[in-house]
Amino acid sequence: MNDDRALVEAVLANAPGAFERLVRDYQGLCWHVIQRMVRHPDDTRELCQEAFLRVHQALHQYRFDAPLKAWIAQVAYSVAKRFLEKKRIPLLEIADDGDRVALVETIGDGTDMSSDHADAQRDALLHAEIERLPPLQRTILTLYHLEEVPIAEIAGITGLAEGTIKSHLFRSRQRLKQALEARMGVAA
């Protein structure tokens, strides 16, 4: 957290190279969050630039009550969410019973996905199935498993309750497991 404070203070003081360092340190996170939601490289590039512009404009509002990583992820998430809303791409899907279900609800049960899917064919199938998840589910799955963002921080980023995040992670992993079993013909 002290590194966060030093970096933020350097950016706010217009120290040479400080903002470039912030972008360099967090561009991967920003890319993952936005790419998982919008899934188009050109849009992702443009939205990442917009996200960092917003970070720069609002950095004076950052209060150090959460890690800088979580705050930047929240900005990226908001930018991507707004983009999807403008394009009228739903963050929710309609369940069989007609209820709206947050797309996040299709994320799994906490298994170690990287070791479970070490085989190259299985890994390729897994990534293809992740891409089929709705935007919000892909994003939560990415934040949790690839960016290793804690559930509490994901809740802060998305505005969803921690229990809802856990439920979505469980359901998504179940959905991925079932899809892999169906495509591979064996238990995943």
Explain what you see.
It is a single chain. The protein has 188 residues and is mostly helical. The chain has two domains: 2-86, RNA polymerase sigma factor, region 2, helix turn helix motif (Rna Polymerase Sigma Factor, Chain: A, Orthogonal Bundle), CATH 1.10.1740; 92-184, Winged helix-like DNA-binding domain superfamily/Winged helix DNA-binding domain (Arc Repressor Mutant, subunit A). It is 69% helix and 3% strand. The protein has helices spanning 2-12, 18-38, 41-58, 68-86, 113-116, 120-132, 135-146, 151-158, 162-184, and strands at residues 92-94, 100-102. It has a two-stranded antiparallel ribbon. A hairpin with a 5-residue loop joins β1 and β2 (100-102). α3 (41-58) packs across α4. It is elongated. The chain starts with a helix and ends with a helix.
Question: How are the SSEs placed, and which strands pair?
Answer:
Layout: H1 2-12, H2 18-38, H3 41-58, H4 68-86, E1 92-94, E2 100-102, H5 113-116, H6 120-132, H7 135-146, H8 151-158, H9 162-184
Antiparallel strand pairs: 1-2
Helix pairs in contact: 1-2, 2-3, 2-4, 2-7, 3-4, 4-8, 6-9, 8-9
Please tally the helical runs, counting DSSP H or I stretches of 4 or more residues.
Answer: 9
* Strand content range: under 5%
The average pLDDT score comes to 80
> Strand sequence of the main sheet, in spatial order?
1-2
**CATH homolog superfamily of the largest domain:** Winged helix-like DNA-binding domain superfamily/Winged helix DNA-binding domain
Name of the CATH first level of the largest domain: Mainly Alpha
